[in-house]
Task: structure prediction
Amino acid sequence: MTSVLWLRRDLRLRDHPALHEAAEDGPVVALFVLDPALLKPAGAPRVAFMYRTLRALDADLREHGGRLLIRRGDPTKAVPKVVKEADASSVHISADFNPYGRARDEAVEEALGDVPLVRTGSPYAIAPGRVTKGDGDPFKVYTPFFLAWVSHGWRQPATTITGRVEWHTGLDGVDIPHDPDLPRGMELPEAGEDAAIEAWRAYRNKGLAGYADNRDRPDLDRTSRMSPYLKWGSIHPRTMLADLSPSDETFRKEIAWREFYANVLFQWPDSAREYFLPQMAKMDYARPDSAAFTAWCEGRTGYPIVDAGMRQLLGEGWMHNRVRMIVASFLVKDLHIEWTHGARHFMRHLVDGDLASNQHGWQWTAGTGTDAAPYYRVFNPITQGQKFDPDGDYVRRWIPELRHVAGKAVHEPWELGDDLPSDYPERIVDHAEERKEALARYQAARS
Result:
């Protein structure tokens, strides 16, 4: 009997439990639905990378006698239509745990009627909801979650069965669209499963050993950059975890942060848009349509480490994680603009934009989320730059106006006096004063 493998965030053929289940029934239709509800809010870098990933998956399928069937529209209509055309007896998916994905899958399940929607596996090493406290309550703090997550453990990667799958290729679909226009000069990572595996292999062999010491240094660029591949499931985190040794604990913890935020969003779905700590919604915020917000978006705040990060976002569709925290803190606590506006800007521009990680990363920095010591942490953009970009190389890479400034002096260009370039902006705020203001607003919100 024919089955449908409805692909979403699992765009690969290796280590794919849902494919195993689908192949047991007989011929498999590999389906991807271009869902307007997800495409509309996504920015060009993420959409372009998704399209390229789909093309790579289609090429992989064709090498094994299959092809990727692309349909466009509401999945509650598109998926049952494919089932009817293929006379399929089941639909197989990797479970989705985001708020929209869960609601969508339940609606599709209802629309399928007697045809079962079979959930096997997920985009995570351990599916959200499985790691809980001893009393069954969900974790709100990362460290005890991490300990329980490790104690729970995860499966080994699934065996590869691609060569043994019989593919159903008799249905007509639409072409994968052309990439949307990207900012001039932007180069996205090579897409697809083979690219993901090669990127991970290269990093594992050459970069992983130094991760714990260098992960916070944007000037060295020593992070794995695997996040776009994890976003679309070109590689599963279980595959990466299987390659880690006991000495790779810091990297293992970063994978766990991704799983922690997915678990928080699963348990508190409203936290995608609303405050995890509702009392913080009373904060007094500035208008998001201000000149200050525009300066932040464009990387023209006068604080070099902030501006370098924002320009990297616009230039690469990616930003170093340490710098993500610095620029987020600056928006919320120096410019007093609500975190939701920064989170939305990131999701429009990030190639690796992931709802759970993005929204809860922002809430953590803004002091409205799961952090055990939230609002009092205010990142100083000067000392952060001096500590994590000590020679100024990251700043000079992204701010050509300051390339003539040597060493760490680049982090305080206002001290240059007459040597301050005329085309680089002066500071739009005084950090020391705005830190006091941020804490005063926090105290007012608590009272």
